[in-house]
């Protein structure tokens, strides 16, 4: 399907969009997003053989690529049905966070708990790696899922009781238990459940590999398979799972890469 001899196209690190654009912010860092204008003959874009979201704004088509948090500095290459695209990954200083968790099960789980986590992680990863058609023609305009100040939590290197864990892959919004959590954009509820680390959780598929996740809820108000409109209630803020206080964990996954949810908000 691809040409045998490929000539790389170097895309600028930042691209200036007109004010009407609903596209996410372009931030080419690990955990960020690359918004790439496409040539007329580029109709398919792939990263590691998986499709990348394509949308259109005012007659111009764009690839919207989620950059995995584990991506090292340097160049990432996307393949297409035409010429490959190279993305320059720039350094970004994420913060560190040291937390004290009273329940030791969430710091050093036993084998039964680890087995449960493995099952739940596979269930979630199967959803993150899915790529379903979108019902929109232009990129959806995202709104905040709940009221509260955004913490600088995405990408933080975390230490629980002094032990290092994986970087934080979502955005924490401190809020009181019982506060409404709404859908930031239209989508389909693809999973609900109570998970070991995430507590009561809802996952919403917005199309083309764009998945949102809402964790630690005190109550879930939707069901799997339900079509949800922007602003409709998903559940209530809580403190279920591994938490040190009531808050909403809002995660965004794009082409199976966890990316900074703040980049979707204007």
TrEMBL record:
Keywords per UniProt: Signal
Positions of the M23ase beta-sheet core domain: 167-261
Residues passing through the membrane, by range: none
InterPro entries cross-referenced by the UniProt entry: Cell_wall_metabolism_enzyme (IPR050570), Dup_hybrid_motif (IPR011055), M23ase_b-sheet_dom (IPR016047), Peptidase_M23_N (IPR040487)
SUPFAM superfamilies in the record: Duplicated hybrid motif
Ranges for domain Peptidase family M23 N-terminal: 31-82
Listed name of the protein: Peptidoglycan DD-metalloendopeptidase family protein
Organism: Acinetobacter corruptisaponis
Lineage: Bacteria, Pseudomonadati, Pseudomonadota, Gammaproteobacteria, Moraxellales
């Amino acid at each position: 399907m691809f040409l045998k001899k490929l000539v790389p196209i170097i895309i600028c690190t930042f691209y200036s969009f007109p004010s009407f654009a609903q596209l996410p912010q372009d931030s080419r860092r690990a955990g960020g997003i690359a918004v790439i204008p496409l040539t007329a003959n580029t109709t398919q874009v792939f990263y590691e053989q998986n499709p990348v979201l394509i949308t259109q704004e005012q007659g111009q088509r764009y690839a919207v690529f989620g950059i995995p948090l584990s991506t090292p500095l340097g160049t990432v290459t996307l393949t297409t049905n035409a010429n490959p695209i190279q993305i320059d990954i720039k350094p970004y200083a994420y913060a560190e966070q040291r937390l004290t968790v009273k329940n030791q099960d969430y710091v050093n789980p036993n084998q039964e708990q680890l087995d449960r986590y493995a099952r739940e992680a596979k269930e979630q990863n199967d959803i993150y790696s899915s790529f379903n058609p979108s019902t929109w023609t232009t990129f959806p305009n995202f709104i905040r899922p709940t009221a509260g100040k955004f913490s600088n939590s995405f990408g933080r290197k975390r230490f629980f009781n002094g032990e290092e864990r994986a970087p934080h892959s979502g955005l924490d919004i401190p809020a009181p238990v019982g506060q409404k959590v709404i859908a930031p954009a239209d989508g389909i509820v693809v999973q609900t459940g109570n998970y070991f680390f995430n507590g009561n959780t809802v996952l919403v598929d917005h199309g083309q590999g764009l998945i949102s996740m809402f964790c630690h809820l005190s109550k879930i108000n939707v069901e799997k398979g339900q079509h949800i409109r922007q602003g409709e209630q998903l559940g209530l803020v809580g403190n279920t799972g591994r938490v040190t206080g009531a808050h909403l964990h809002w995660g965004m996954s794009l082409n199976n890469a966890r990316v900074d949810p703040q980049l979707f908000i204007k």
